Amino acid sequence: MGGGGHLSSKQAILVIDDEPIMQEILADFLGEEGYEVDIASSGEEGVEIARTKPYDCAIVDLMMPGIDGIQTTQALKELDATLPVIMITAFASVESAVEAMKRGAHEYITKPFKNDEVLLVVQNAIKQRELEIEVRSLRRALRDKYRFENIVGKNRKMQEVYALIAQAAPSRSTILIQGESGTGKELVAKAIHANSPRTDKAFVTVNSGAMPADLLESTLFGHVKGAFTGAVASKKGLFEVAHGGTIFLDEIGTVAPEVQAKLLRVLQEREFMRVGGVETIKADVRIIAATNVNLRQLVAEKLFRDDLYYRLNVITVNLPPLRERPDDIPLLAHHFIDKYTRENERNDITLSQEALDVLRSFHWPGNVRELENAIERAVVLAPPDGLIRAELVQEYIDSGSFDHSQMPSPPIGSVSLKEMVWEFQKNLIIRALDQADWVQKDAAALLNVKPTTLNEMIKRYGIRDAQREQV
Ligand SMILES: Nc1ncnc2c1ncn2[C@@H]1O[C@H](COP(=O)(O)OP(=O)(O)OP(=O)(O)O)[C@@H](O)[C@H]1O
Ligand SMILES: [Mg+2]
Predict the structure, then answer these.
(1) Closest C-alpha to 47, from 92, 80, 6, 24
(2) What pTM does this model have?
(3) R_g over Cα of the chain
(4) What residue numbers bound the domain in which 156 lies?
(5) 177 lines ligand 1 (CB under 6 A)
(6) Using one digit for the tens of pLDDT, what is the confidence trace for 8-66?
C-alpha cells in the first residue's frame, strides 16, 4: 500500500483518546497491520500533532475532557478537509455520533468493537479518500491545461495539436485533419471554428463519403431550377449556407473525381457556380477537410488529385490513435464519467482502479469514440453502490459491441507492420474458431495448422470463448 499524501511508505493514523487502555489496543493492532500510529490523549493535543504532520486517517473518541470529539473533528477538518475522521463512541451516545457524522466525521464505531471492524472502516476511509483526491486532481487537470474546448488529453502529441489549433484557428487557411476513426476529427474541426473570428457564423458539416457524385455536387454548390430532373426550384448549396463561416468536408478521400475538380476551383478562385447555373458566386468560406485514410497514398494510387491534395494540405493536424497515448485514458474515462453521470442524473459513480487498469491495457481500435461507448454503458449499468468494477468494462471489450467492420483499415504509417499482422492473425483465428464452433481441432484443420500450434496461438493472442461472434 502506498502512503497517501506523505513520503513515508507507511500510512499514518492519529489516535485521539483519553483512555490509556484504548490507546494501547488501537496502537497495538493497527501497528501490527502495518500502519504508523501516533497517540494523543486529548483533542487539543491531537490537533497540535496534526498541525505538524499529515495523516491518512484519524480515530477520535467522542467523550473526552476538554474539547470533545466533535470539536476535535472540526478542528482537524479545518487543517485538512480531506482527512477521514472515524469517531469512537460508547453505545449510549449514538445520537451524538450521528451529530458527529453531520459535522464531518467519516464513520463511527461503537464500543466495544472488534478489531476487524475498525480495520475495515479505516481501510475503506483511506481508500475513498485516495479516490477523491485522484478525481479532484484529474478534474483540476481537465479544467486547466489538459483540454482545448471539448478536446481532452494531456499526451504530448495532443498538446502539440492544441498549440497548432490555437495558432491556425484565427487565420482563414485551409486545414486538413488526419486521424483514424473516432480520434476526434470533427471535435477538432469545431474547436478551430470556435476559436476563429467566424465563430458567430455557420459551421456546416458535409459528409462527403455518404453521397454519390451528382448529389454531393448539388449539395455543395446548389443548383438552378431545371438543372436536372427533379430540380423544380433553384436551391442554395452548402457553400452559400456557410457564407462567412466554416465548411467541414468530412471523409474528403471518398469524393469522386468530378467533384474534386470543382472543389479545386473553389480553393483556387474562391468562387463557384450552381449546378446548371451561369453566374459565379463568391465563396467566403473557411475550409476544413478530414480524412481517415492516408490521402498521400490515394494520390500515389491516382485516386485523389494531387493539385487538390496540395491545396488542402496547407496546415495538417494529425490526431494520434488512442493506443499511442494510453496516458490519456484515465483523463478521458473520467471526462466521460462526468458527462454521462450528468446525463443520467447519477452522481454516485466511481471507477475502480482495476476497471481503469482494464481500460488502460486495451488497444481501442475504435479510439476515443469506442472508449466513450464503453463508459456510457458502464455508467448506465453501474450497480447500486455506483462502483464501476473491472468486470463491467471487460464485458464491453469482450462482447466486441463496437462495430469494427465499419472501420477502414488504419492508414499506412500509423501502425507498425507487426501490430497489423498481429491483429489480422488474431481475427482470422477467431473467425476460424467461430466457423468450427470453437472446436480447436476443426479450426486448426481450416487454418491448415497443427492443433498444438493453434492452441499455442490462442494462448499467445489471449483469445477466449468470450470473443465468440466478435468478428
Ligand atoms: N480528445 C477527445 N476528448 C474528448 N472527447 C473526444 C476526444 N476525441 C474524440 N472524442 C469524442 O469521441 C467521439 C468521436 O469523435 P469524432 O466524431 O470527432 O471522431 P472522428 O475522428 O470524426 O471519427 P470518424 O472518422 O469516425 O468520423 C465524439 O463523441 C467525441 O466527442
Ligand atoms: Mg467524423
Answers:
(1) 80
(2) 0.65
(3) 31
(4) 151-318
(5) no
(6) 578 999 999 999 999 999 999 999 999 999 999 999 999 999 999 999 999 999 989 99
